[in-house]
């Protein structure tokens, strides 16, 4: 029988850690290694978590207001036109296209959450119509 690895849970982000991430992203955000450089200062957090924290919560350029009707329609059409045959969606490209089109930076999580809710709604609607 295979042994499973028990991974220690990483600590939650503190306000102090958030402030350090913000400070160093302002200094090093242009560097391709910025997250690993911040990891050297905050070794309790992996680079990937630091990146995720910045891209979804801490970046001051993020627009956190609800998606507009136009943005929602754009997402639906964009996914329909660009989703791969295997179902993969390139969220990073969609984030870039949304910023270019609407002059607002949205996190990929906001777009994913909207799309997944929309997908569930459509699936539920199609099941209800089969009855």
TrEMBL record:
The lineage of its organism: Eukaryota, Fungi, Fungi incertae sedis, Mucoromycota, Glomeromycotina. This is HTH myb-type domain-containing protein. It comes from Glomus cerebriforme.
């Amino acid at each position: 029988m295979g042994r499973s690895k028990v991974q220690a849970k990483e600590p939650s982000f503190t306000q102090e850690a958030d402030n350090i991430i913000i400070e160093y992203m302002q200094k090093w955000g242009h560097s391709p290694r910025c997250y690993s450089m911040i990891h050297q200062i905050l070794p309790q957090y992996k680079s990937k978590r630091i990146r995720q924290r910045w891209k979804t919560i801490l970046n001051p350029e993020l627009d956190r207001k609800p998606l507009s009707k136009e943005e929602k329609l754009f997402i639906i059409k964009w996914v329909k036109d660009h989703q791969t045959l295997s179902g993969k969606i390139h969220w990073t490209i969609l984030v870039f296209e949304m910023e270019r089109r609407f002059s607002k930076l949205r996190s990929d999580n906001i777009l994913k959450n909207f799309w997944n809710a929309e997908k569930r709604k459509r699936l539920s609607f199609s099941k209800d119509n089969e009855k």
